[in-house]
Amino acid sequence: MRTHLLDSRQGFAGDDLIFTLNAAAQQRAATGAPVINATVGALLDDHGKLVVLDSVMALWRELTPMEIAPYAPIAGDPAFLLALTQRHWPQLTSPGVAVATPGGSGALALTLKNFVERGQAILTAAPFWGPYATIAAEASVRLETAPYPAPGEALDVGAWEAKARDLLEEQGRLLVWLNDPCHNPTGRSLSRDDRRTLLAVLRDIASQGPVTLLLDFAYLDYARDPNDVREALDDYAEFGAEQSVLVCASLSLSKAFTLYGSRAGALVFPWSSDAALKGALVSSCRGTWSNCARAPMSVLLRMTKSEAAQAALAAEHAHWRGVLTERVTALDAALKAEGLPGSAWDGGFFVTLPAPPDPFAVCEKLQAADVFVVPMPEGLRVGVCGMKAADTGRFAAAYAASIA
Fold first, then answer.
1. Which long-range contacts (CB under 8 A, 24 or more apart) does 230-236 make?
2. What are the domain boundaries of the chain?
3. What is 6-52+311-403's CATH number, 2.20.25.90, 1.10.418.60, 2.10.109.10, 3.90.1150.10?
4. pLDDT digits (tens, 9 = 90+) for 245-301
5. What distance in Å separates the CA atoms of residue 286 and residue 289, rounded to the nearest whole number?
6. pLDDT for 163-220, tens place per residue?
7. Domain 69-306 has what CATH class?
């Protein structure tokens, strides 16, 4: 079954389009067709089975009723908030202002409720994770974008600065969502020079009005080189401690612990102690989801108390980082064998490939070859999280034919 996409050209349609494409891929696979389904957004093994981390599930099975059933505090268990913050910045002794959220999506939504007004806009990179548009639209907020650097190119500082200054002048405030490192959907990370340049721009602009920077950290455990992640987190910590810009982070266990369905995360402001901010966030939590699930909080707390569990989790993350690296390496080689540029990747579940002249039309051509990807205005989102290395040759051949 082919899914017609040409009516979706008004921009990336987000979850609706992804679900439609994934369903079409599954229907074709059910007929016995040799489908390559690169629409998925969760980590699959080479048999197409969802990866569930054994180290995490072993702790889940140990939970007592009192670690599962009682209401969690509206703001979240303070010990959980500290433990989740310290997964990213071990040196911190407090999460600062922090509230539990249903995954990273909840953290993103809270910033819209508290830092911009209806009809205003936020700034993010293009391309972006499709549900950003859904979350923004639900809050009656616009998404304005500046370009994510192309492979081998530097950040377009002028474009970022111009857009940021325009929004600050128009609104009297600026909120930036930055998904780095392991950017979804490009699978790349900002270079240290680009990161520091962008932070310098925000620092300068903040002299003219309040600027808030949200850091979206969904895929950090699946970076090619964990040292690059550590470097980025240290840069952000140094910048946040300056307090020229209000820095917060969307933290989640969805990918890190493969607990997609438990919806466990937090919005943390590690370098703020503003009581008014904490009160506003708690009020927003109460007025939306009230409180979050206790069980995943309990799992993280058990993890922090067990060196053996931490070692097992680290080993599993290392294994799946290796699998992702193997898949992208195979895809890169297969694309180059077709005379194409290849696929740059630093981490995460996706790569983005160009699809001239029309990503939606290219996507339909790929469907005819039983290859399913997600079209965006900027190209094709390809889920290497669900693609076997052995399938990359057929994928590359179909892709090359579709853009010829």
1. 231/192, 232/180, 232/181, 232/189, 232/190, 232/192, 232/195, 233/88, 233/89, 235/192, 235/195, 235/196, 235/199
2. 6-52+311-403, 69-306
3. 3.90.1150.10
4. 999 999 999 999 999 999 999 999 999 999 999 999 999 999 999 999 999 999 999
5. 6
6. 999 999 999 999 999 999 999 999 999 999 999 999 999 999 999 999 999 999 999 9
7. alpha beta
